[in-house]
Design brief:
This protein is α+β, with helices and mostly antiparallel strands. The protein contains six helices and eleven strands. A hairpin with a 2-residue loop joins strand 1 and strand 2. It starts with a helix and ends with a helix. About 20% of the residues have low confidence.
């Protein structure tokens, strides 16, 4: 191999290492020897945890929430396995409450980034591995390896909402895996169908 190609490959590996470090991924130890030391960065969730305030997200009146029997609402069950979300297309109806579970069956953490979706739903409660989270207005959810995130929410706004497996607020940058779509059907249209 020529000397110039070795330098280019080294720079490419260093870039790959930086991308992986930013995304929370790791390289096998044999490849880590090829990459220069990268400074420790804060976790992705501390970089982009929320939109700022709950005023940025949809809300539902407390009076309406008292009428919801969470044990009887429709459930959306999503699974992450081999770096893929299943199902990749989720359908909901505007105005309905849902329990939305995402089970990570991989041996590494995944991030469910659905910025527009999370702005358009009224998040009532979220737990990760059974631990209730304080925040209800956020852009993405990190699901640790072999753990489950459970959200109680109301689909407040209709539309098509893309989700990706990454932690960056600009969803098109550095996607760590497959993406999909959540379709919230307009309530009037759902009644006709």
């Amino acid at each position: 191999m020529r000397k110039g190609s070795q330098g280019r490959i080294g720079r490419q590996l260093a870039s790959l290492g930086l991308v992986l470090a930013l995304s929370g991924c790791t390289l096998p130890s044999s490849m880590m020897e090829l990459i220069p030391t990268i400074p420790t960065l804060p976790s992705a969730s501390s970089l982009f945890p929320s939109f700022g305030s709950n005023a940025d997200c949809a809300v539902v009146s407390p009076k309406a929430l008292k009428q919801v029997n969470w044990a009887r609402v429709p459930e959306v069950n999503m699974r992450i396995r081999n770096d893929e979300f299943e199902p990749m297309i989720v359908q909901m109806t505007q105005g309905w409450p849902y329990t939305f579970r995402i089970s990570n069956r991989d041996d590494r953490a995944h991030t469910f980034n659905a910025q527009d979706f999370f702005k358009s739903v009224a998040m009532i409660r979220i737990t990760i591995d059974g631990v209730r989270q304080d925040q209800t207005c956020f852009a993405s959810v990190e699901i640790p390896a072999q753990k489950t995130a459970e959200m109680q929410l109301v689909a407040a706004v209709d539309g098509h909402f893309v989700f990706k497996d990454n932690w960056l607020p600009a969803a098109s940058l550095l996607s760590g895996g497959a993406d999909g779509v959540i379709i919230v059907q307009e309530r009037r249209k759902a009644r006709r169908d």
